[in-house]
Amino acid sequence: MSWPAPDFDPVPVILACPAVAAALLAIIPSYRFSAWLNVFASLITLIAASSLFTLPQHAGDYVLIDNLNIVFIALNAFVGFTTSIFSASYIGHEIEIGRLTPAYLRFYHALYQVMMFGMNLALLANNIGLMWVAIELATLTTVVMVGIYRTHEAIEAAWKYFILGSVGIALALFGTILVYMAARPIVGEGLDGMIWTVLMQHVAHFDPSLLNVAFVFLLLGYGTKVGLAPLHAWLPDAHAEGPTPISAVLSGLLLNVALYAVLRFKLLLAANAHAIAPGPLMALLGLVSVIFAAFMLYRRRDIKRFFAYSSIEHMGVIAFAFGIGGLLANFAGLLHMTMHSLTKSGIFYSVGHVAQVKGTQKIADIRGLTETHPVLGWTLVFGVVAIAGLPPTGVFMSEILIVSSTFARAPLLALQLAFGLLIAFGALMWRLTGVAFGEPTGSRAPVKASYLPMFAHLALVFAAGVFLPPVLVAWFQMVARGLG
Amino acid sequence: MHGASFDIAHLLAGALVLVSFMLLYQDRLYALLNVFALHAVVLAASVAWQAYVQDAPHLYVTVAIALVLKAGIIPIALHNMVRRMGIHREIETVGGIGATMLAGMGLVALSMMVMLRVTAGADPLAREDLAFALAVILLGLLIMVTRRNAVSQIVGFMSLENGLILAAAGANGMPLVVEISIAFSVLIALIVIGVFLFRIRERFDTVDVHALDRFRGERL
Amino acid sequence: MALTLRDLLVQGAQMALVLIVAPLLTGAVRAIKAHLVRRQGPSIFQPYRDLARLLRKEATMAENASWLFRVAPYLIFSATWIAAALVPTFAAGLVFSWAAALLAIVALLGGARFFLALAGMDVGTAFGGIGASREVMIAALAEPALIMIVFTLALIAGSTQLSTIAEFMQTPAVGLRVSLALALIALIIVAIAENSRMPIDNPATHLELTMVHEAMVLEYSARHLALIELASSLKLVAYISLIACVFLPWGIAPAASGWWELAIGAGAYVAKFSVCAVALAVFETSIAKLRVFRAPDFIGAALMLGLLAVLLRFVSQGL
Amino acid sequence: MTASPLLALAPPPLAGSLLAIAALLALGPLAVLTFRSRLSSGLIYILAFVASVTILVAGATHLWRSDSVESLTLALGLPSLGAHFRLDALSAAFLVIVDLGAAGACIFAIGYGRHETARGRVLPFFPLFLAAMNVVVLAADAFSFLMGWEFMSLASWALVMTHHRESENARAGYIYIVMASLGTLALLFCFGLLAGSGGGYDFAAMRAHSPAPVAAASVLLMALIGAGSKAGLAPLHAWLPLAHPAAPSHVSALMSGVMTKVAVYGFIRIAFDLIGAPLWWWGLIVLLVGGLSAVLGVLFAMIQTDLKRVLAYSTIENIGFVFVGLGLALAFEANGLTAAAALAFTAAIFHAFNHSLFKSALFLGSGAVLEATGAREMDKLGGLIHRMPATALAFLMGSVAISAVPPFNGFASEWLTLQAILLSPQLHEWPLKILVPGVGAMLALAAALAAACFVRAYGVTFLGRPRSTDAADAKETDFFSLSAMLSLAVACLIVGVLPGLVMDAFAPAAQLAVGAHMPAQIHDRWLSIVPVAESRSSYNGLLVFAFALASMAATVLAIHWFASRSLRRTPAWDCGFPNPNSITQYGAGSMAQPVRRVFADFVFRAREQVDMPAPGAFEAARFRVDVRDRLWDALYAPIAGLVAFVSDKLNYLQFLTIRRYLSLVFASLIALLLALALWP
Fold first, then answer.
1. Closest residue, chain D, to C212 (C-alpha)
2. Which residues fall within 8 angstroms of residue B161, CB to CB, at 6 or more apart?
3. Which of D415, D239, D212, D221 is nearest to D316 (CA)?
4. Highest-confidence range of C86-95, D131-140, D513-522, by mean pLDDT?
5. Which of A301, A295, A218 is nearest to A258 (CA)?
6. Closest chain A C-alpha to B44 CA, distance in angstroms
7. How far is CA A433 from the centre of its chain?
8. What is the pLDDT of residues D193-234, one digit of tens each?
9. Smallest Cα–Cα separation from D324: which of D444, D430, D210, D146?
10. Which of A373, A395, A407 is most worth mutating to test chain D (most D CB atoms within 10 A of its CB)?
11. What is the least distance, in Å, from the CA of B117 to any CA of chain A?
12. Among B167, B171, B207, beta carbon nearest to A156
């Protein structure tokens, strides 16, 4: 990218843009205008984020830019942007049919930007305390947004999310304190003990037992946010009951951000020779999530909850890949994460429109979608086919890589993973068959959908399945190497 | 750090664990709230001692929060709530008080086992402190898990959080301790408000008594 | 191998021979059977008269019969004829025997049956269907048995060429073999089944519910019927020739033999032929027809015997 | 061989094929954009036809010129690997098989596709399906292979779902795609094992490094599961008779006639090319599975009442035949009997080729029937030979070919397979010695039952009297459909008459796979085929054909000279009791009854129930047959039940209270802490 001047520092923009936008949006009452402002702010963030690639790595007291988080930030900004477009049309429709009133939505866009701010901050943070704060900020914002419909179910889901999230917060904090305690004898008191880059330099000398306990807490604490089974309970309901843009962002982004935190600490632990290997723990949780979510998919009746479980499954796959480690698996994990974010948010976009046009989220009441709404239906088919890991999509590529790279190292684990994937596949295709095909039911009214975000996401997923640009590959490989 | 200060810190942290056990032992809501106030007081004392020992005046903010909010406002608010919403005064437990006490013992032993593996080279204060903090956290979780009333679950969460504050305060020179304790206080306040707002009488799980019979989410 | 006039003559003679003796065989068996039950049967030349009469008559055909119904008799006849012509009767080394080894002969007969069954179904009567369904059921068991027999022979003689097998059978290398005996029994059963003889089918009956072959050809008349009758006689000849050639190989003129040997071969063939005809007649009169659904057990026995024979061969050849 | 100047001008076959594949891929989006236009259908199919023929020519050219191996690597697909493509004799042979069938289906579809009600659901996926199959055949690395493989499944799944409103079809599609995915995973493991720890995912690396015996055995098993599930080997065949008939008929033809061959190719590529030297007992397994598939396939074909389902089950039988050949080839190769291995291998690939011809013709025929009458149920058909004579002729030729009646091609390849079996006493291992004759018997049984099956299928569908008004009013199908069916049928005859030519063409493939090839047949006298030595066995389709023609001509002439030529049409005789009601004919169920009875207990668990009202009662007597698929009951139903059971049990976790969820978190925490505490 050539247009940003070399001395331009996008980091403040990435952080400030959502923050300022949030403040502005909080005072703007007009729904329509704020929707556009939201899109605009997200676009600015996206532009700033994409200029990160030109920046050298650097680490300050609070902000860190390295190869790893650039990937996350870029993905974050992109999906944040597309979701803001989707959100504009989705929310517009909700207001039209009166399911949401502008009063409910008063702070919706502001919260959206706050959430983006939280996530960007978490990703940029070099300070593990700051990261913790940022993730909690993002979580609490989404809690409010999940409850925005103020139906009984929505509030209950938000409440569940809130309580489980709070416990997760507490656990993660304890883990953070423990890391600091482990670091204190070596790097001394004060800020240094919380700066990730400093920790990384000295971690080899930290007390391994303390690190072990810390990791357990961090894994469970942030793992709750990732939605790994058996810590997943908030996730399906939050996805199902919140507005769909939020489901998309939750699945596409927030889970990633939490995973990013886990990854950071995994790196930390891996650098200490005497601590337990963090990989197997992650792989274990990942595997449990895959198999558990795969079975859970079969009994789902709500389409958004269904895809939420699919998110659990995929987060499990990603955690598994990073847990297995090694260049290939890490590469595959990164790829899978990217692909999952794009695909799953794409699916949620189309599911959102589907639920709107059919007036229901019950799977049993949505049938023959390719007949009644061909474009929407086939987009959904493509999305599900992609998320199920069929070619020609990037998910296929990453799943193949994960399974095969695992297979070279731990054949039995790979078999179990494949088992989980197959079970999940069966559920996905079963539900897809019911929703997209069969004798159509429900409304045939044309849908005013914003196809652009869906198409953009799915096109990217498709393109990645066929051809990964060498630049991207090189970048991912660099990151994967760093992930050990 | 010399012997006496170490002993006092140790004593206070141990006292916090003991009060956690007392929380576990209660089967009346009012008594539980009273004991929780005591918990907060002990925490305040412990943090104050740390502030004094570490010469970290900002920790007094935390002490103040603990005393005012946790030992004062919140228990009183919960008292009111229990009275006004007509919540059962008795605490429904899972598995009985005795069993949970035993489990609590096990948890304390576990936290000792886990923490004492930390090499002796590490700061002994931190090590002991952390063991107690971990015990408090685990006991708090145990309360949340074995008590069915919303109020006692809140109490469990708050005692868990007290354990966190204890650990954070014990970590010499840790930045953001105060901020964290404030953030947590806000969190707890939100939970309490949520309980009020959603009229959660009995449990966390149902936010509205009228909704008890309605299907939730999936159940058809 | 160059084509010589002699070879062509032998082949031609064989083709003519089977065609000529076929009705005779049928007639002979009928006559002997009649004699055995103390009946004054027709002359053994009666089948020739029947054929001539059928050929003279005007053909009637069901209104909805298709072209297949008309073509089938020719197909059936020519396939059977080729098959019969490729089984050495009096002389081995038939000029075209390499064109179709034993398996191909089996398949040619199978092809004839295929069209016969189709023809049975063409008019759309219940009887045609009965016949066709039973015929294919019987064939479905008999054909694998036959292939097993072919396997046995092929494994013993190292060839599926009938000429080679026949020549090999005359050498002392054969010896007495269990598998051969098993194969012989199996072959006889198959021959009975395939030719719709007792106890599988009664060629003399039109008792509706028990018939198989006759049910299929019920709608045929005149020249078409004549061809089919001739074809079934030819099939019987082919099977008897097969048994004779493989299990009673004596006297068959080897390839490139002189006229004298050919004459001996012809004489031997007539003798074997007669023996078989008598044996068949005796067998048929001494046995009752099986119920249709007992037939599979009977033919299944042939399949098992054939398989056993092959297994024995497989196993012993490794020794 | 001399390359004609025309051939010299052509682009290199591999590049040409890849371009054609790219063109096919481009047709998909084109179809999406244009499918609403009436011209679109014809256009797409014509273009697909051109592309298929291009690839066909490329493959044939390669085989014909005995070209050396061509390779090409594109920077697509997996980044570190790239997409490797390779055209060798084996790929070329299968390109021919695939694209011959594809071309036939395309021509058929030019006519057939006009009547398609859901054009938008067929047109985009059809060229993609063709492209995917070709990609599989040309792929030379695991990733491209799997991608093509799975994409092939996906595209065909979409085609199966064309008429998705029928719940049967949707179910078929579902079972299909899940089984396909299972197969892909099996293949993935197979390649994983082949790649070894080094992770060389291109085929060249796999060839270079041969796996340890245990790994190699697992590779074979995985390949058998992976490719076998796609090919329809029992017991992984359950999806096939559901999915193949559900698709539009030209797609059914492709799936049955061609896609199963791609699966065979996959198995051959792995088991003969990549894995290295085989062990004898691999052959044993393959033989057993093949024999079982052959018999089970045809038995189930025999009792189906749906015409397309008959054809689908018959595919299982034929695939069984192919795999028996492959199993024999493996066994021979392991014993060092390369000539015999070449024979068995050639038989297998030849049968695969033949099957693609006649099964395509038959499925297209069933499509024409479906189009004309709207019925797949044989009990609604009948008498179509009058209304659709050309279709009937094509279908008849296909039936004759598949029933292994000489001089058609089915016989030639089955004959060759049996010849291979006859060579097997040379094998050293006792289990093989005992099994091979048994498999031979199974094949013989299967072949005989296949004839029975197609007598029934043809007889009930085309002969007799119409069983419904739709059948009575059927119209002959269009020109394109007819020409496709008839060309394929005639191809069956030509190949059957000149089998030597085709076998010679496949010789390089055999050379590649088993390291030897059969003696060239082209030089044999009068184009007969002589697998080993003339004294041993030989077959001359040409001569048999000529004989048959000559003797038939002689008979016809003789009859017409000597016999009465007059013919009178009369009502049917029927032993004097003709009944005009067409249901008095033998139907699909009654035709199958004898065979069903014979195998009733053993295979079908058939229960026949007759409710005969008491004398004097007026209600109709009822006859009911209940047939079960034992494999389904024993294998699939329990798995489905298990998944349902586990999901039901786990589903409780969706309805827990927050406290219980917290307990889960708490329990995980305690478990991990305990593990840490007890960590040595």
1. D594
2. A170, B140, B184, B187, B188
3. D239
4. D131-140
5. A218
6. 19
7. 26
8. 888 766 678 888 888 877 788 888 888 899 999 999 999 888
9. D444
10. A407
11. 6
12. B207
Work out the minimum CA distance from D643 to partner chain B, whole angstroms.
19
A311 interfacial to chain D (CB closer than 8 Å)? no
Q: Which residues of D touch A209 (CB under 8 A)?
A: 676
B132 inside 8 A of chain A by CB: no
d(CA D204, CA D87): 13
Q: Give the residue ranges of DSSP H helices in chain C.
A: 5-36, 46-56, 67-86, 102-122, 126-157, 162-170, 178-194, 213-216, 222-247, 259-285, 295-317
Q: Which two tokens stand for residue B168?
A: 């954070």
Contact flag for A and C (3+ C-beta pairs < 8 Å): no
- Asked whether residue A386 is assigned to any structural domain, the reply reads yes
Give the distance from residue A161's alpha carbon to the nearest chain D alpha carbon, in angstroms.
Answer: 9
Residue A254: inside a domain: no
User: 3-class DSSP state for residue C133?
Assistant: helix
Buried-state track D301-316, b at ≥16 Cβ within 10 A, e below 16: bbbbbbbbbbbbbbbb
What sign does the CA torsion over A246, A249, A252, A256 have? Answer: negative
Number of domains, chain A: 1
Q: Is residue A333 part of a domain?
A: yes
Contacts of A260 (CB under 8 A, 6+ apart): A68, A69, A72, A122, A123
d(Cα D299, Cα D295) in Å, to the nearest integer?
6
- Write the single-letter amino acid at D108: F
Which C positions 99-138 lie with beta carbon below 8 A of chain D?
99-101, 103-104, 107-108, 110-111, 113-114, 117-118, 120-130, 132-134, 136-137
> Among residues 190-209 of chain A, which lie with CB inside 8 Å of chain B?
190-191, 193-194, 207, 209
With 0-12 / 13-18 / 19 or more C-beta atoms within 10 angstroms meaning exposed / middle / buried, residue D91 is buried
Q: Which residue of A has its CA nearest to B160?
A: A170
For A166, name the nearest residue in chain B, comparing CA atoms only: B187
Q: What does the alpha-carbon distance between residue D220 and residue D275 come to, in Å, rounded to a whole number?
A: 8
Q: Which residues of A361-383 are buried (b: 16+ CB within 10 A; e: fewer)?
A: bebeebbbbbbbbebbbbbbbbb
10 Å CB burial of residue D6 (0-12, 13-18, 19+) is exposed
- For chain A, which chains pass the contact test of at least 3 CB pairs under 8 Å? B, D
Cα gap C270→C266, rounded to integer Å = 6
The residue segments making up the domain with residue C162 are: 5-317
DSSP state letters, D578-610:
----GGGS--HHHHHHHHHHHTIIIII--EEEE
ipTM: 0.89
Residue A169 vs residue B189, higher pLDDT: A169
**Cβ within 8 Å of D, A 220-279:** 220, 224, 230-231, 233-234, 236, 276
Residue position matching structure tokens 């891929």: D25
Most confidently predicted of A302-316, C105-119, D267-281: A302-316
Q: Are strands A64-65 and A58-59 parallel, antiparallel or unpaired?
A: antiparallel
pTM over 0.90: yes
Residue B193: how many other CB atoms lie within 10 Å: 11
* pLDDT above 60 (res D120): yes
Segment (H or E) for D43: helix D40-65
Structure tokens at D284: 């044993």
- Distances C181 to A179, C164, D657 between C-alpha atoms, Å: 88, 19, 79
Number of domains in chain C: 1
**Which chain D residue has the Cα nearest residue C218?**
D574
Cα–Cα distance measured from residue B82 to residue B202, given in angstroms and rounded to the nearest whole number:
10
CB contact D676 to B (< 8 Å): yes
